[in-house]
Structures are given as C-alpha cells and as structure tokens.
Amino acid sequence: MRQLAGTQAGRAYLRSEVEGELQAIFSRSQATAEAYGPHFSRLWNLASRRVRGGKFVRPLLLLETYDALRRSADSIPNSRSTSQPRGAHARSEVVRIAAAVEALHFAFLLHDDVIDGDFFRRGRPNLIGELAEASRDEARPGGARHWAQTGGILSGNLLLSCAHQVFARAKLPAELKLRLLDVLEHTVFETTAGEFIDVGLSDGVFSADLGTVLEMTGRKTASYTFELPLRAAVILADGSRALENKLSAAGLHLGLAYQLQDDLNSTFGDASVHGKDLYSDLREGKQTAIICFARMSGSWPLIESDFGNPDMSIEAAKYLSDCLRDCGAEDFVRGLIREQVEAFSLVLCAPDSEESVPRTVQDVLFGLLARIDGRQS
C-alpha cells in the first residue's frame, strides 16, 4: 500500500477493505436476524446494504492516518520519540475498527433521519423511506410511516451495539482496548449531546447564539466524523496520548469547517449536487451560523416570517436564500471557515510543540482539507 498512499487508487483499496469487513460483520449476524422472521431479516439486509453504500469518510480517514503513522515509524529506525508509534497490530483488527466507525456513523444517521422526519437522502428514499414505501399498501393509515421510523430507530440501536461489540472484542492489548472504548464512549456522549442541543435550538428551547451553535456543531459533527477516526488511528498505532490530543484538536477545527461548508451548501448550493432536500435547513428552521448572523442584520424581518415553515414554497425558500446572501451571512460563514482552517493548520504545524505531527500524517490531513475545501456535496 505504500506506493498507493494518498492516491485515488489507494483510497479505493482501503474502501474495498472496509466494505469487505462490513459485509463480514453483517453476514455473521444474518442467521440471527433470520430467526426473527422475514420482516426483521429484510430490515437487517436493508441496513447492511445502506451501510456499505456510503462515502466512508470516517473509516478512510482512520486507515489513511494509521498507515501514515506506520510509515513514519518505519522511516525512523530505533526512534524513541513519544509521538512515534511503538508497535503494530494485525491489519485486520484496524480494518475491523474502521468498519465499526462506519456502522456507528450510519446508526447516528438513522436516528437523525427519525428526529428530522426525513424519508430521503441524496434524492433517493433512505432506509426509512424504503420501509415506508414497501409497507404502504398493507399498513393502516399512518401506520407505514410509524412502522418505518420504528425500523430506523431499532436499526440504529442494533448498529450502536454492533460498533461497541467490535471495539470490545478487538484483539488488542488491554490498555489500548480500554483507550479505544473510552474514546468510543466519549464520542457517543458528545454526539448525543450535540443532537440534543441541535433540536433544542431548532425548537426554540435554547438561545440561538453563535457560541452555542458552534459548540453544537463541534459535538454533533466534528466529534465522530474527525476526532474519533484520528484518535483511534493514534491508539491503534501505539501513539502517545499527547499526539492523540493534538490530532483531536485538529479534528475539531476540521470538523467545524466541514459542517459550516455543509450549511452553506444546504442554503446556497445546488441540491442536484449536494443531495439534500432543497432548502431543507430553511424549512426545518435549522439554527446555523448563517442564521445567527442574519438575526443581527437588518434583513432579519424579511427572513423571519417564513424561516422554519415546513410548507414553504421553492420560490419563498429561494427568496430567503437570496436575502441571506445579500445580508452578508454567506460571506460571514466563509470567514468562519477560513478561521477554522487556519487554526487547523496551526495545530498541525506549530513549530514550538512538544509533540510534532509526523509529516506523513500532515500530508493525509492537508490532502483531506483540499478535498473538503469548497466541496459541493
């Protein structure tokens, strides 16, 4: 893999490793699912197919960072630096953890879709939407929706359990396994708290100030999308806690930039490219940094009347989007993204740090930043 590191072919190979492990994870429980009848077996198969159809941002980040740490260690004979990995573990265990991270991601997606009442993702029915469509003729009025959302909650629960099982059964030294489990527990708490705050903001329970919105974003998105894979990679490569903490800090800044860009795409982007329902954030009343800025502008009275209206027309939503752009909200959030990118770069390259990030890892993360910067989907 060394000659393919960081290339499109290299990422395709890593993706195939994760897909194979996910297939193995679901196959091991297939007989158990079948024992509970055809409907439950179909739910398990549907979840399996959906998990394996994602972008794999998180497991690929874990594997690329782990491989970069291993290359760095191999290039420094007899190195005693505390930031350098000390040993190696079976590749299969690393891939299995990476697959579990993707299962965790899909569990969060399922629960998020239920909370938001979403039946589509990237222009196609999501798991909940597919279940609802399949049961529409048999169920009582309203029953298909309730049954499908129940399936989403229960599938998410199963995948959360699956991720914990993989982490707990990893063939690793006890100290490393406990570190991994601590990171997993922290991630679940952080993401759950972030989702709770997100809904509280949208429902008006919490004050929608910029600090609260950014705190929510860090917990809901950055924690499990970037911090978890980076911290897990360091642990699996026997890296120091100091290096783990440093990459965790870098992951927070990268995650905030990633989500802020996602907010821009949803409000100002092309739905045929980013795949979300057109202007869904405006219809759902999502309290983003865009909206925080708009509240302080003279354009807010023009936006407030329709913001959060689930029945808002495309024309009205387009008008809101134009108002948000004209009042400076788009430029403001682009400035926030630049701030996070600068902070991210500083963490990675600070010359006075006791724990320098290996150049191989810097290459991985700056390469990821280049793919994220200005992304449309």
TrEMBL record:
Keyword Metal-binding assigned: yes
List, separated by semicolons, the cofactors it needs: Mg(2+)
Single GO MF annotation: prenyltransferase activity
User: What PROSITE patterns does the database record attribute to this sequence?
Assistant: POLYPRENYL_SYNTHASE_1
A GO BP term here is: isoprenoid biosynthetic process
**Keywords, sorted A to Z:** Magnesium, Metal-binding, Transferase
Family annotation (InterPro entries): Isoprenoid_synthase_dom_sf, Polyprenyl_synt, Polyprenyl_synt_CS
| The keyword Cell membrane belongs to this UniProt entry's keyword annotation | no
* Pfam families according to UniProt: polyprenyl_synt
Q: Which family does it belong to?
A: Belongs to the FPP/GGPP synthase family.
Q: This chain belongs to which protein, by name?
A: Geranylgeranyl diphosphate synthase type II
Q: What organism does the record attribute this protein to? A: Rarobacter faecitabidus
